[in-house]
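Lab channel / #folding
Pinned by the channel admin:
"Please post every new chain as: sequence first, then the structure tokens as a reply. Keep commentary short and put observations after the output so the thread stays searchable."

First post following the new format, from NK:
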Amino acid sequence: MPDYVSALMPDSLDTTSPMPFSEKSIIGAYGPWAAGLVNQPPALSFRNKQWKSIDKWREEALAKTLDLAAPPKIEKTPSVKIVKKYTYDGLDIEELTWQLPYGNKTEAILLKPTGSTGRLPAVLGLHDHGGNKYFGTRKITKTSDDQHPMMTTHQDHYYGGRAWANELAKRGYVVLVWLVLFLGLLGFFLLLCVVFGCCGFCVWWCFLIGGRAGCVVLFYCLWVVGGCLYWGGVFGHVERMVFVVGGSMIL
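Reply from TO:
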């Protein structure tokens, strides 16, 4: 075992005993069940004493990670287009897009210290969900003084009033924040297309089966379910979202 690893993991450290389980869990009563699915220490954890070489561990752990992630095969590196460049609050900012072999164009924001050249330590900044599907990269960045009021509130609530991607870049990092699929303005419109497409088919089918009365019932159901989905998304409490259908409640 390399010296620096030994320093971090001394022989006196107990790496075989199960980690203490807290009764509090984000999945509630299912916490103990989920915790029991994983051996302690996990087979591919470097805490497991079977691993003597960090290089061997890295090789097998990465292979398993790629197997589970199932990334699509990309024959060549996509061409990146710089849409816009500007400077703000001590940072050089670039708005980027690139096209993968599938789906829509990826949008991203690159932030780095003003005037920096050469290689910099890099961070891939993944923005949160936060119960808000309309905004994406703007949740963790700030690219002008004209910030949307909802994003000001969002950053105040979750990040102490700071855009953490900007804060990292000011400390000497280059930070790439990309727009997660189905979030942001593009994802919002894609979701609308799917919803309205399905609704249109349902209306046509209900009209054939039940005539005008069938359509009225369908619209009422869509109104109830749509309201639950909307307010559940607004408040962001997915695990406690309540669907009200036909007078029954499912928690």
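NK: The chain has six helices and seven strands.
TO: also worth noting, The longest strand covers residues 80-88.
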